[in-house]
Design a protein that fits this description.
Elements: H1 5-10, H2 27-42, H3 46-60, H4 80-92, H5 96-103, H6 105-114, H7 121-129, H8 135-140, H9 147-154, H10 156-159, E1 163-164, H11 165-182, E2 187-190, H12 192-195, E3 200-201, E4 204-209, H13 219-229, E5 233-239, E6 262-271, E7 282-291, H14 297-305, H15 308-322, E8 324-326, E9 331-333, E10 338-339, H16 345-352
Parallel strand pairs: 4-7
Antiparallel strand pairs: 1-3, 2-4, 5-6, 6-7, 8-9, 9-10
Helix pairs in contact: 2-3, 2-4, 6-7, 11-13
The chain binds adenosine-5'-triphosphate and manganese (II) ion (MN) (2 copies).
Amino acid sequence: VTALAPLGQQMAPYACQRRTPLLHSNQPLTEALETLAEEAGFSGSEGRSLAFTRAASVLKALPGRLSALEELGPLPGIGEHSRRVIQDVLEDGVSVEVERVKLSERYRTMKLFTKIFGVGVRTASRWYQEGLRTLLDLQERNTKLTRQQQAGLRHYDDLNTPVERGEAESVGRTVQEAVQRFLPGASVTLAGGFRRGKPRGHDVDLLLTHPEAGREAGLLSRLVSWLDSQGLILYQHSQENSFALCEGPEPPGSRDVLDRFERCFSIFRLEAQGGPGAARGWKAVRVDLVVAPVSQFPFALLGWTGSRHFERELRRFASHERKMVLNSHALYDTMRKRFLPAASEEEIFQHLGLEYVPPGQRNA
Ligand code: ATP
Ligand code: MN
Ligand code: MN
């Protein structure tokens, strides 16, 4: 019964100090906890949401299937509430609390609305307060939608059908070929969940760079215009590089959740490769394009590979344990008051005094 206890006790407190594989043995437990994390997020309780996410993340790193709560021992990062949920699922197969959440009108409606591209918790919550419950309600009551939300609604079914790895690779090749027209030598890297080994995902994250500094400037707008002219873009929203504006004496602010690269949030029209879009001939796919200058590439790659929780933990570790500020552009040492350059992800882990965690083990 105590087989996991010693391991539980050795479990490192930060997710970035652990190896978290894609597949693990405690799926029913992590699903329950992540449902509660999501629900807490829907209610605006970020702290509670994070507590459930942390607990789920710890279970994902366990080397085996948990069969009794006692096996965990005094594990850090799993609070009272999470323990109760774990116990319920272990004993009864389900948690009554979780089942109640999943059936609740509010949770179901929030889930439906936040699955629209461009709709966050705040908008979904407002719609719920206004009495809206279905996608049809949005149309019939002429709810004011942004251009992004209109596109999200138009392609709702496609965008909520997982992107298969083959589709992601196909998008990657299309972008790579287009990029070569404008900037020979530039590289296109598949980041996000696919780089962590996921077989499918909700979008395709592509990182662009060029080995000569500065050559990447202006690439994105030319690339997107060309793809658009070929009829490959159903929606796009680009953002210029704004990092230069905040450079200088000020270190990268940890309050900046978003990075400041030239980037494009888009919906591609992908020729169907079987699956639901096959009969129609094409499928809408969410694609994020990000351009990084080569000096920042390792930071961008680390930042855009995820998981979100792994990234959050890396930044928390950097700041609390090392007095450093990490983001997708740079690593700043606040004690020595200087930026720490890196030519690879490995070097960033070294600067932080962390054992290197390969992408496939960042599924925290
Ligand atoms: P999925 O299969 O659902 O796409 P994913 O891990 O690829 O899973 P994404 O939402 O695509 O999830 O995010 C990938 C990574 O990119 C995350 O680690 C996240 O931190 C980073 N990221 C996503 N959106 C932004 C953004 N707007 N600004 C900065 N980083 C972002
Ligand atoms: Mn992704
Ligand atoms: Mn993404």
